[in-house]
UniProtKB/TrEMBL annotation:
Protein name per its UniProtKB record: Opioid binding protein/cell adhesion molecule like
Annotated ranges, domain Ig-like: 37-124, 134-216, 220-307
Gene3D superfamilies from the UniProt entry: Immunoglobulins
Lineage: Eukaryota, Metazoa, Chordata, Craniata, Vertebrata
Subcellular location, record wording: Cell membrane
Keyword terms: Cell adhesion, Cell membrane, Disulfide bond, Glycoprotein, GPI-anchor, Immunoglobulin domain, Lipoprotein, Membrane, Repeat, Signal
């Protein structure tokens, strides 16, 4: 610890009172300490806690004070600071200490223990370090974008030391860690990248501050399930059409070129979420045939053909895509055979 001697003319006027008038007795004197005054090492506290600043002195001291930069806080037992958070703890022949309650960031900085001896003034300095828990002060709002767009998410945090900011995609598919930066940039976002993104600010002073942003990705419908169905005359027959889309798709049903609607005798159309059903309560011969399910949202539409067939009919039972592909293959094979025979 180094000390800086001050000319007598620069020593605070408040310290002209003898030390015997400022210190209570009853504490053994440590003499022969050539390093006095000796303040603590740097003091580190969290925001809102109390900081104690101690200075070791001996019986050679005649006047003593604590200063914050050039501002006198205490001179002996006399309080110069108007801040009621600053109080004196001890003023003895061996120690002169003060306490600062409810410390804030503006309290950070150098504090000086200044003493006067018969020879000349001396000082010892301690630096108060104020730690601040991490706090996210600005974060992007929930956002909705179309698939293929570029997205930038922002998460600004404050703390002492400066916190580390990490973005993570909270996905059931285990996307996990994404980026260690205040800004998360996603180019050409896909539907799999929708969901919640978690921003975490960490500086080891306190528990991390965590906030979330929901990213919704719009995309056009695609039909994931549309199977041909068999039913006997007089029985119930149900055709199902399942489509994934954001926003949720609206469904329409057609038989050939005729749109079907609720209210037709013995028929009910029910759509909920991603599933639409066409129910025949009492199947008749005229109900057999090809039906088309159309799924639509603001980004586009798609359709699939579904067959309601009776007993004895041969169908693969697969979805529309596989049925159409199989039909095309059979037609191509038949056409090739006819050309060869010709």
């Amino acid at each position: 610890m180094s000390f800086r001697a001050l000319p007598p003319s620069t020593f605070p006027e408040a310290l002209k009172a003898p030390i015997s008038e400022l210190k209570p007795g009853g504490v053994p004197v440590r003499s022969g300490d050539a390093t006095f005054p000796k303040a603590m090492d740097n003091v580190t506290v969290r925001q809102g806690e109390s900081a104690t600043l101690r200075c070791t002195v001996d019986d050679r001291v005649t006047r003593v004070a604590w200063l914050n930069r050039s501002t006198i806080l205490y001179a002996g037992n006399d309080k110069w600071s108007i801040d009621n958070r600053v109080v004196i703890l001890s003023n003895t022949k061996t120690q002169y200490s003060i306490k600062i309650h409810n410390v804030d960031v503006y309290d950070e900085g150098p504090y000086t223990c200044s003493v006067q001896t018969d020879n000349h003034p001396k000082t010892s300095r301690v630096h108060l370090i104020v730690q601040v828990p991490p706090q996210i002060v600005n974060i992007s709002s929930d956002i909705t974008v179309n698939e293929g767009s570029s997205v930038t998410l922002m998460c600004l945090a404050f703390g002492r030391p400066e916190p580390t900011v990490t973005w993570r995609h909270l996905s059931g598919k285990g996307q996990g860690f994404v980026s260690e930066d205040e800004y998360l940039e996603i180019t050409g976002i896909t539907r799999e990248q929708s969901g919640e993104y978690e921003c975490s600010a960490v500086n080891d002073v306190a528990v991390p501050d965590v906030r979330k942003v929901k990213v919704t990705v719009n995309y056009p419908p695609y039909i994931s399930n549309a199977k041909n169905t068999g039913a006997s005359v007089g029985q119930k027959g149900i055709l199902q059409c399942e489509a994934s889309a954001v926003p949720v798709a609206e469904f329409q049903w057609f038989k050939e070129d005729t749109r079907l609607a609720n209210g037709l005798e013995g028929v009910r159309i029910e759509s909920k979420g991603r599933l639409s059903t066409l129910t025949f309560f009492n199947v008749s011969e005229k109900d057999y045939g090809n039906y088309t399910c159309v799924a639509t949202n603001k980004l586009g539409n798609t359709n699939a053909s579904i067959i309601l067939y009776g007993p004895g009919a041969v169908h693969d039972g697969g979805n529309a895509a596989s049925r159409v592909a199989t039909g095309l293959c059979l037609w191509a094979a038949l056409l090739a055979r006819l050309l060869l025979d010709f």
